[in-house]
Amino acid sequence: MSIFLVGKYCRQIIIHNPQIKNPLVLSLAQSFHLCAGRSSCNKSTVSMTQHISMSEDFFFKQLFDRVSCTYSYLLADVKSKEAVLIDPVIDLAERDVRLIDNLGLKLKYSINTHMHADHITGSGVLKKLLLGSQSVISKASQALADKHVEHGDIIEFGPHKLEVRSTPGHTNGMAFTGDTLLIRGCGRTDFQEGDAEMLYKSVYDQIFSLPDNFRLFPAHDYNGILDTTVSEEKRFNPRLTKSKEEFVEIMKNLNLAYPAQIDKALPANKVCGLYNLPSEMEEKFKSVLNI
Ligand SMILES: N[C@@H](CCC(=O)N[C@@H](CSS)C(=O)NCC(=O)O)C(=O)O
């Protein structure tokens, strides 16, 4: 699944989901202002938060989880204060609440680009901590959520609109690509609904069809890089610059380790991160989850 943001300044956000269920893409035609803090992941230095002012009424911040190397994205309408959070992580729910409160924002939706296999979503805990907010995921994921979206659906916050696009198999604009397209890589296709041929088609049809200067923001990076562009990935992605047949062979032979948290993450993520939680998470959030 993909989501485009179409606002009054012709912005777009696309949420795409290649490998598993649904990923994200956001496109804006504005200039960026970046303020980066630092933390570490896999011995590389990465920016912990990135603040991008796109326009007077659009707010964007990139957030990072050191454990799963997951990026979350906070988007808001500056005037109405309505906000959406893409791919929140349960371990960092309190950080996200503090940030949203501190900025005076009202969380409308926490959106999962897909049912993650490497961490538990923060959307269940966030809807308890920030009353009135709702969780969102694709219908195709078959996971519990307040709102299920399908290709062509629109998600609104203030005057901004997110258009959902389906990208099965694992956008100066911006796009949130989930795990479909990673920086110089892509989502694995060896479990869940993974399908290498479908992923290849999703990337070419839904992401490489965007303008070359679109900035792409993935759900993860394991090398300390924050973002990329359509042009860079078309030229330098070692998997996606190959033919479809070569790509399928590459994906068959990745031999990646099973994600460390998958057996805990998938049962919890099927139910919005509200139930089937590991005991330490139940203990941490028992008052808000009424356990
Ligand atoms: N070691 C990590 C899992 C790493 C991994 O499998 N990442 C996924 C996305 S999260 S399910 C992936 O698609 N990787 C593609 C790649 O080429 O690395 C852990 O134990 O969590």
Notable traits:
291 residues; alpha+beta; Metallo-beta-lactamase, Chain A; three-stranded antiparallel beta sheet; 32% strand; globular; binds the ligand N[C@@H](CCC(=O)N[C@@H](CSS)C(=O)NCC(=O)O)C(=O)O
Overview of the molecule:
- The structure is a single chain.
- 22% of the residues lie in helices and 32% in strands.
- The protein has a single domain (2-289), classed as 4-Layer Sandwich (Metallo-beta-lactamase, Chain A).
- An 8-stranded mixed β-sheet has the order 4-5-6-7-8-9-10-11. It has a 3-stranded antiparallel β-sheet with strand order 1-13-12, with no helix packed on it.
- The chain starts with a strand and ends with a helix.
- It has 291 residues and is of the alpha+beta class.
- It has helices at residues 93-102, 123-129, 196-207, 230-236, 244-252, 262-269, 279-284, 286-289, and strands at residues 2-5, 12-16, 23-27, 36-41, 44-55, 58-65, 70-77, 82-86, 106-111, 134-138, 147-149, 154-157, 160-165, 174-178, 181-182, 185-186, 215-218, 228-229.
- The ligand N[C@@H](CCC(=O)N[C@@H](CSS)C(=O)NCC(=O)O)C(=O)O binds at residues 19, 68, 117-118, 170, 179, 185, 187-188, 220, 256-257, 259-261.
Task: Briefly say what this structure is.
By secondary structure, the protein is of the alpha+beta class. Helix content is about 20%, strand content about 30%. The protein is built from eight helices and 18 strands.
CATH architecture classification name: 4-Layer Sandwich
List bound small molecules. the ligand N[C@@H](CCC(=O)N[C@@H](CSS)C(=O)NCC(=O)O)C(=O)O
Q: In which range does the helix fraction lie?
A: 10-25%
What distance lies between the first and last C-alpha atoms, to the nearest angstrom? Answer: 33 Å
- Binned strand content: 25-35%
Subcellular location: Mitochondrion
GO molecular function: metal ion binding; sulfur dioxygenase activity
Main location: mitochondrion
Enzyme class: oxidoreductase
